[in-house]
Amino acid sequence: MKINYILFLLTAAFCYPSITVAKIIEAGSPDKKNVITIETDNQVSYSLSRNGTKILDTCPLSLTVGNDTWGTDKCRKVTRKSVSEKVEFIVPRKYKETVDNYNQVELIYKDYKIEFRVYNDGVAYRFVSTANNKQPVKKESVSFCFGQDHTSYTLLTDQLQNWFEQDYTVKPINALPKDSFSVAPVMVEVDKYKVLLAEANLYNYPGMYLQPSQESFHGIFANYPDKEVPYEGDNKIYVSTRKDYLIPNCGKRVFPWRVTGIFDNASSILQSELIYLLSEEKEQTDDYTWVKPGKVLWDWWNDRNIYHINFKSGINT
Protein backbone atom coordinates (compact mmCIF):
# COMPACT_ATOMS: atom_id res chain seq x y z
CA MET A 1 0.00 0.00 0.00
CA LYS A 2 2.81 2.42 0.91
CA ILE A 3 4.58 1.72 -2.40
CA ASN A 4 1.39 2.41 -4.35
CA TYR A 5 0.93 5.71 -2.48
CA ILE A 6 4.50 6.79 -3.30
CA LEU A 7 3.99 5.87 -6.95
CA PHE A 8 0.79 7.94 -6.97
CA LEU A 9 2.61 11.00 -5.61
CA LEU A 10 5.41 10.66 -8.17
CA THR A 11 2.92 10.27 -11.01
CA ALA A 12 0.97 13.33 -9.82
CA ALA A 13 4.13 15.41 -9.63
CA PHE A 14 5.06 14.59 -13.24
CA CYS A 15 1.62 14.58 -14.80
CA TYR A 16 0.12 17.53 -12.91
CA PRO A 17 2.86 20.16 -12.54
CA SER A 18 0.31 22.81 -11.46
CA ILE A 19 0.23 21.13 -8.04
CA THR A 20 3.59 22.78 -7.35
CA VAL A 21 3.83 26.53 -7.84
CA ALA A 22 6.75 27.72 -9.95
CA LYS A 23 9.16 30.04 -8.17
CA ILE A 24 9.95 32.01 -11.34
CA ILE A 25 7.11 33.12 -13.62
CA GLU A 26 7.39 35.04 -16.89
CA ALA A 27 4.74 36.96 -18.78
CA GLY A 28 4.89 39.17 -21.85
CA SER A 29 2.86 42.01 -23.30
CA PRO A 30 0.49 41.29 -26.21
CA ASP A 31 3.09 42.67 -28.65
CA LYS A 32 5.82 40.63 -26.85
CA LYS A 33 8.06 43.69 -26.35
CA ASN A 34 7.66 43.96 -22.56
CA VAL A 35 8.59 40.96 -20.39
CA ILE A 36 8.10 40.68 -16.64
CA THR A 37 9.87 38.05 -14.53
CA ILE A 38 8.21 37.34 -11.18
CA GLU A 39 9.96 35.51 -8.34
CA THR A 40 7.81 33.98 -5.58
CA ASP A 41 10.51 32.43 -3.38
CA ASN A 42 10.67 33.94 0.17
CA GLN A 43 9.45 37.41 -0.91
CA VAL A 44 7.66 38.29 -4.13
CA SER A 45 9.75 40.43 -6.46
CA TYR A 46 9.77 41.25 -10.15
CA SER A 47 12.05 42.55 -12.87
CA LEU A 48 11.17 44.08 -16.20
CA SER A 49 12.67 44.39 -19.69
CA ARG A 50 11.66 45.85 -23.05
CA ASN A 51 13.09 44.51 -26.31
CA GLY A 52 15.85 42.86 -24.27
CA THR A 53 16.82 46.09 -22.47
CA LYS A 54 16.63 45.84 -18.68
CA ILE A 55 14.20 48.44 -17.38
CA LEU A 56 13.82 47.38 -13.74
CA ASP A 57 16.10 45.13 -11.72
CA THR A 58 14.78 42.94 -8.87
CA CYS A 59 12.00 44.93 -7.16
CA PRO A 60 10.66 43.40 -3.91
CA LEU A 61 7.09 44.13 -2.83
CA SER A 62 5.00 43.48 0.27
CA LEU A 63 2.02 44.71 2.28
CA THR A 64 1.86 44.49 6.09
CA VAL A 65 -1.65 43.81 7.41
CA GLY A 66 -1.82 43.46 11.19
CA ASN A 67 1.07 41.18 12.10
CA ASP A 68 1.18 39.49 8.68
CA THR A 69 3.40 40.53 5.78
CA TRP A 70 1.72 39.71 2.50
CA GLY A 71 4.03 38.66 -0.30
CA THR A 72 6.35 36.65 1.97
CA ASP A 73 4.27 33.51 2.56
CA LYS A 74 3.75 30.53 0.27
CA CYS A 75 1.86 31.06 -2.97
CA ARG A 76 -0.96 28.53 -3.35
CA LYS A 77 -1.80 28.89 -7.03
CA VAL A 78 -0.91 30.84 -10.18
CA THR A 79 -3.49 31.73 -12.81
CA ARG A 80 -3.16 33.51 -16.15
CA LYS A 81 -5.52 35.22 -18.55
CA SER A 82 -5.43 37.45 -21.62
CA VAL A 83 -7.85 40.33 -22.16
CA SER A 84 -8.69 42.37 -25.25
CA GLU A 85 -11.89 44.39 -25.04
CA LYS A 86 -13.23 47.78 -26.06
CA VAL A 87 -13.68 50.41 -23.36
CA GLU A 88 -15.85 53.47 -23.94
CA PHE A 89 -14.74 56.70 -22.27
CA ILE A 90 -17.19 58.19 -19.77
CA VAL A 91 -16.42 61.61 -21.24
CA PRO A 92 -15.28 61.37 -24.89
CA ARG A 93 -12.05 63.19 -25.66
CA LYS A 94 -10.14 62.82 -28.90
CA TYR A 95 -11.56 59.32 -29.23
CA LYS A 96 -14.81 57.76 -28.09
CA GLU A 97 -13.28 54.44 -27.06
CA THR A 98 -10.03 52.56 -26.61
CA VAL A 99 -8.92 48.93 -26.29
CA ASP A 100 -7.98 47.34 -22.96
CA ASN A 101 -5.42 44.74 -24.03
CA TYR A 102 -3.13 42.97 -21.54
CA ASN A 103 -1.85 39.65 -20.23
CA GLN A 104 -2.40 38.97 -16.52
CA VAL A 105 -0.77 36.76 -13.90
CA GLU A 106 -2.42 36.20 -10.50
CA LEU A 107 -0.56 34.87 -7.47
CA ILE A 108 -3.19 33.44 -5.13
CA TYR A 109 -2.64 33.16 -1.37
CA LYS A 110 -4.84 32.26 1.60
CA ASP A 111 -6.64 35.59 2.14
CA TYR A 112 -5.27 37.73 -0.68
CA LYS A 113 -3.83 37.71 -4.16
CA ILE A 114 -1.32 39.75 -6.17
CA GLU A 115 -2.25 40.71 -9.72
CA PHE A 116 0.27 41.60 -12.42
CA ARG A 117 -0.81 43.05 -15.77
CA VAL A 118 1.50 43.43 -18.76
CA TYR A 119 0.44 46.00 -21.36
CA ASN A 120 2.15 47.10 -24.56
CA ASP A 121 3.01 50.39 -22.84
CA GLY A 122 3.76 49.23 -19.31
CA VAL A 123 3.33 46.91 -16.36
CA ALA A 124 1.28 47.21 -13.17
CA TYR A 125 0.67 45.17 -10.03
CA ARG A 126 -1.62 45.41 -7.02
CA PHE A 127 -2.67 43.56 -3.88
CA VAL A 128 -6.26 42.34 -3.54
CA SER A 129 -7.76 41.35 -0.18
CA THR A 130 -10.09 38.38 -0.73
CA ALA A 131 -11.30 38.11 2.90
CA ASN A 132 -12.93 40.72 5.13
CA ASN A 133 -9.78 41.36 7.17
CA LYS A 134 -10.39 43.69 10.14
CA GLN A 135 -6.70 44.38 10.79
CA PRO A 136 -5.09 47.74 9.98
CA VAL A 137 -2.76 48.12 7.01
CA LYS A 138 0.50 49.17 8.64
CA LYS A 139 2.98 49.37 5.79
CA GLU A 140 3.43 48.90 2.07
CA SER A 141 6.81 48.23 0.49
CA VAL A 142 7.08 49.54 -3.10
CA SER A 143 10.38 49.60 -4.97
CA PHE A 144 11.44 50.64 -8.46
CA CYS A 145 15.05 49.43 -8.74
CA PHE A 146 16.99 50.29 -11.89
CA GLY A 147 20.35 48.69 -11.09
CA GLN A 148 22.27 51.69 -12.45
CA ASP A 149 22.00 55.46 -12.41
CA HIS A 150 19.71 57.24 -14.88
CA THR A 151 18.43 60.76 -15.46
CA SER A 152 15.17 61.38 -13.59
CA TYR A 153 12.45 64.02 -13.68
CA THR A 154 11.09 64.60 -10.17
CA LEU A 155 8.77 67.05 -8.43
CA LEU A 156 10.55 67.21 -5.06
CA THR A 157 9.07 68.10 -1.69
CA ASP A 158 9.87 67.47 1.97
CA GLN A 159 6.34 67.31 3.36
CA LEU A 160 3.42 64.92 3.02
CA GLN A 161 0.89 67.74 2.65
CA ASN A 162 1.58 70.05 -0.26
CA TRP A 163 0.09 71.73 -3.33
CA PHE A 164 1.95 69.88 -6.11
CA GLU A 165 3.12 73.15 -7.65
CA GLN A 166 6.91 72.84 -7.47
CA ASP A 167 9.19 72.89 -10.50
CA TYR A 168 10.52 69.60 -11.80
CA THR A 169 14.14 68.69 -11.06
CA VAL A 170 16.12 66.99 -13.84
CA LYS A 171 19.05 65.07 -12.34
CA PRO A 172 20.52 61.58 -12.10
CA ILE A 173 18.86 59.55 -9.36
CA ASN A 174 22.08 59.44 -7.32
CA ALA A 175 22.31 63.25 -7.38
CA LEU A 176 18.88 63.80 -5.82
CA PRO A 177 18.70 64.87 -2.15
CA LYS A 178 18.02 61.81 -0.01
CA ASP A 179 15.96 63.80 2.52
CA SER A 180 13.38 64.75 -0.13
CA PHE A 181 10.84 62.76 -2.08
CA SER A 182 8.89 63.25 -5.27
CA VAL A 183 5.25 63.49 -6.12
CA ALA A 184 4.19 60.78 -8.57
CA PRO A 185 4.57 60.38 -11.47
CA VAL A 186 8.35 60.30 -11.83
CA MET A 187 9.97 59.90 -15.24
CA VAL A 188 13.29 58.10 -15.70
CA GLU A 189 15.27 57.85 -18.93
CA VAL A 190 16.53 54.29 -19.41
CA ASP A 191 18.63 54.20 -22.58
CA LYS A 192 16.22 55.37 -25.31
CA TYR A 193 13.07 54.63 -23.28
CA LYS A 194 10.97 56.95 -21.14
CA VAL A 195 9.90 55.12 -17.97
CA LEU A 196 7.03 56.54 -15.93
CA LEU A 197 6.56 55.51 -12.27
CA ALA A 198 3.00 56.10 -11.12
CA GLU A 199 -0.08 54.69 -9.41
CA ALA A 200 -3.70 54.17 -10.45
CA ASN A 201 -7.10 53.43 -8.93
CA LEU A 202 -6.36 55.28 -5.70
CA TYR A 203 -9.37 55.16 -3.36
CA ASN A 204 -9.46 55.36 0.46
CA TYR A 205 -5.71 55.01 0.70
CA PRO A 206 -2.77 57.43 1.03
CA GLY A 207 -1.12 58.60 -2.17
CA MET A 208 2.34 57.34 -3.04
CA TYR A 209 5.43 59.55 -2.95
CA LEU A 210 8.74 58.30 -4.35
CA GLN A 211 11.99 58.71 -2.43
CA PRO A 212 15.36 58.31 -4.20
CA SER A 213 17.86 55.81 -2.82
CA GLN A 214 20.99 55.07 -4.86
CA GLU A 215 19.68 53.79 -8.23
CA SER A 216 16.13 53.25 -6.98
CA PHE A 217 12.91 54.92 -5.93
CA HIS A 218 10.97 53.63 -2.93
CA GLY A 219 7.36 54.40 -2.11
CA ILE A 220 6.55 56.33 1.05
CA PHE A 221 3.07 56.98 2.40
CA ALA A 222 1.45 59.30 4.93
CA ASN A 223 0.10 57.45 7.95
CA TYR A 224 -3.54 57.88 8.92
CA PRO A 225 -4.26 61.31 10.53
CA ASP A 226 -4.63 61.39 14.30
CA LYS A 227 -5.08 65.09 15.07
CA GLU A 228 -5.61 68.01 12.70
CA VAL A 229 -5.15 71.72 13.35
CA PRO A 230 -6.21 74.76 11.26
CA TYR A 231 -3.50 76.94 9.79
CA GLU A 232 -3.73 80.45 11.26
CA GLY A 233 -4.96 83.04 8.77
CA ASP A 234 -5.72 80.47 6.07
CA ASN A 235 -8.44 78.01 5.11
CA LYS A 236 -6.18 74.96 5.32
CA ILE A 237 -6.01 72.17 7.89
CA TYR A 238 -2.77 70.40 8.76
CA VAL A 239 -2.15 67.02 10.37
CA SER A 240 -0.28 67.48 13.66
CA THR A 241 0.00 63.81 14.71
CA ARG A 242 -0.51 60.52 12.89
CA LYS A 243 -1.47 56.95 13.74
CA ASP A 244 0.93 54.01 13.32
CA TYR A 245 -0.95 52.62 10.29
CA LEU A 246 -1.92 53.64 6.76
CA ILE A 247 -5.62 52.72 7.02
CA PRO A 248 -7.45 51.40 10.12
CA ASN A 249 -9.28 48.52 8.45
CA CYS A 250 -8.04 46.40 5.55
CA GLY A 251 -11.44 44.92 4.71
CA LYS A 252 -12.18 43.10 1.46
CA ARG A 253 -10.89 45.43 -1.23
CA VAL A 254 -8.48 46.16 -4.06
CA PHE A 255 -5.41 48.28 -3.39
CA PRO A 256 -3.94 50.87 -5.78
CA TRP A 257 -1.99 49.76 -8.83
CA ARG A 258 1.77 50.34 -8.81
CA VAL A 259 2.53 51.29 -12.40
CA THR A 260 5.62 51.30 -14.60
CA GLY A 261 4.88 52.87 -17.97
CA ILE A 262 7.44 52.24 -20.73
CA PHE A 263 7.49 54.43 -23.82
CA ASP A 264 9.72 54.66 -26.88
CA ASN A 265 9.58 58.48 -26.81
CA ALA A 266 8.07 61.32 -24.78
CA SER A 267 5.21 61.93 -27.20
CA SER A 268 3.97 58.36 -26.67
CA ILE A 269 3.19 59.24 -23.05
CA LEU A 270 0.52 61.68 -24.24
CA GLN A 271 -1.15 58.93 -26.28
CA SER A 272 -1.20 56.39 -23.46
CA GLU A 273 -4.44 55.41 -21.70
CA LEU A 274 -2.66 53.12 -19.23
CA ILE A 275 -3.67 54.97 -16.05
CA TYR A 276 -7.26 55.34 -17.27
CA LEU A 277 -7.56 51.64 -18.09
CA LEU A 278 -6.23 50.66 -14.66
CA SER A 279 -8.74 52.90 -12.89
CA GLU A 280 -12.23 51.70 -12.03
CA GLU A 281 -15.58 53.44 -12.23
CA LYS A 282 -16.94 53.53 -8.70
CA GLU A 283 -20.45 54.74 -9.57
CA GLN A 284 -21.53 52.84 -12.65
CA THR A 285 -25.09 54.23 -12.52
CA ASP A 286 -24.18 57.93 -12.46
CA ASP A 287 -25.01 60.02 -15.53
CA TYR A 288 -22.03 61.85 -17.03
CA THR A 289 -23.57 62.63 -20.41
CA TRP A 290 -23.89 66.30 -19.47
CA VAL A 291 -20.08 66.64 -19.22
CA LYS A 292 -18.63 67.91 -22.50
CA PRO A 293 -14.95 68.31 -23.43
CA GLY A 294 -13.73 71.89 -23.63
CA LYS A 295 -12.24 74.73 -21.61
CA VAL A 296 -13.06 75.61 -18.01
CA LEU A 297 -12.65 78.76 -15.91
CA TRP A 298 -12.06 78.74 -12.17
CA ASP A 299 -13.22 82.28 -11.44
CA TRP A 300 -15.86 80.80 -9.11
CA TRP A 301 -13.01 79.73 -6.81
CA ASN A 302 -10.07 82.00 -7.51
CA ASP A 303 -11.64 85.45 -8.00
CA ARG A 304 -14.50 86.74 -5.93
CA ASN A 305 -16.02 89.17 -8.37
CA ILE A 306 -18.64 87.28 -10.37
CA TYR A 307 -22.31 88.22 -10.09
CA HIS A 308 -25.83 86.95 -10.75
CA ILE A 309 -25.09 83.37 -9.68
CA ASN A 310 -27.03 81.06 -7.38
CA PHE A 311 -24.10 80.19 -5.10
CA LYS A 312 -21.55 82.07 -3.00
CA SER A 313 -18.34 82.53 -5.00
CA GLY A 314 -14.85 82.67 -3.59
CA ILE A 315 -12.49 80.49 -1.57
CA ASN A 316 -15.15 78.77 0.51
CA THR A 317 -15.11 75.07 -0.45
Walkthrough of the structure:
This protein has helices spanning 2-15, 266-271, 274-278; strands at residues 24-28, 34-39, 45-50, 53-60, 62-65, 68-70, 77-88, 97-108, 112-119, 122-129, 137-141, 143-145, 151-157, 169-172, 181-190, 193-200, 209-213, 216-220, 225-230, 237-242, 257-263. The protein has 317 residues and is mainly β. The protein has one domain (24-278): Beta-galactosidase, Chain A, domain 5, CATH 2.70.98.10. The strands form 4 sheets. Strands 7, 8, 9, 10, 12, 13, 14, 15, 16, 17, 18 and 21 form a 12-stranded antiparallel β-sheet that branches. A 4-stranded antiparallel β-sheet has the order 1-2-3-4, with no helix packed on it. The protein has a 3-stranded antiparallel β-sheet with strand order 6-5-11, with no helix packed on it. Strand 5 and strand 6 (68-70) form a beta hairpin. It starts with a helix and ends in a 39-residue tail after the last helix. The model is unreliable at 5-19 (pLDDT under 50).
